[in-house]
Specification:
Length: 257
């Protein structure tokens, strides 16, 4: 009985947000996502095209110092590593030892040796990063932990565990990570904040919270709309309208002070 109430609660919560769109979006989320290979090798790494688009929206130029704050399992890190050039460096962070082990395997398997030698894997709490480093990176990817509704809908135990309070807790963690990223990036550098959530409270609302807490120190940067729809701020790619890729939300932020 409890599971039924939780499922209705989940359904009602997102139906209120998406209204008439929810039925089609829910069906798309329950379908298998479309993935593309990152290279042409015999056993390539596959990643959702929406994730590729999001990761490529972060400016990374040769020689850059780049941080991937929540890197595992490593697909977006592979994309970032391609643009480092001959002297750029990449720090890939994840607190979970199990997820870091997978991150090591992915980077070892799919990254050229000369690039892999310039990638460091760490285990910090991303929400407290500014305690370790400040003003250090040209570009930061923050692919934050989120509600990940596509996975929740496919897992009865996750549906049973879902609650509105979990979303609120995630929002607090996401903002703490974003605020920490703003301290860790150099003035003039960029942060790409992204999630695989469809929840505006974990997406646009987290970005807008900077207006209250970090006013005058950043600006939102317009990005080319390759797929999806513009939000205020950022871009949201939803599978019901984009051939079953996504969901991904992302917004590009530049530190100005």
């Amino acid at each position: 009985m409890g599971k039924t109430r939780e499922k209705v609660s989940f359904d009602a919560y997102y139906r209120k947000i998406y209204e008439d769109r929810w039925e089609g979006l829910q069906n798309a989320l329950l379908s298998d996502p479309q993935q593309i290979p990152l290279d042409d090798r015999d056993s390539p790494y596959y990643l959702d095209e929406a994730s590729v688009i999001a990761a490529q929206a972060l400016p990374v130029s040769p020689g850059s110092a780049v941080l991937d704050m929540c890197a595992a399992p490593g697909g977006k890190s592979l994309i970032l590593s391609r643009n480092l050039g001959a002297t750029g460096t990449l720090v890939c962070n994840d607190r979970s030892s199990q997820r870091r082990a997978r991150l090591h395997r992915v980077l070892d398997q799919y990254t050229p040796v000369e690039v892999r030698s310039r990638i460091r894997i760490t285990s910090h709490d991303a929400s407290r990063w500014a305690l370790y480093e400040t003003d250090q990176y040209d570009s930061i990817l923050l692919d934050a932990p989120c509600s990940s509704e596509r996975h929740v809908l496919r897992d009865p135990s996750a549906i049973a565990a879902w609650s509105v309070s979990r979303t609120r807790n995630l929002q607090s963690i996401q903002f703490a990570m974003l605020a920490s990223a703003l301290e860790a990036v150099k003035i003039g550098g960029h942060i790409l904040y992204s999630t695989c959530s469809i929840n505006p409270h974990e997406n646009q609302d987290v970005a807008h919270r900077l207006e209250k807490k970090r006013s005058g120190r950043y600006r939102f940067v317009d990005t080319e709309l390759l797929r999806g729809e513009y939000c205020d701020p950022g871009v949201l790619i939803l599978p019901d309208s984009e051939e079953n890729i996504g969901p991904i939300y992302y917004v590009l932020i530049q530190r100005t002070a």
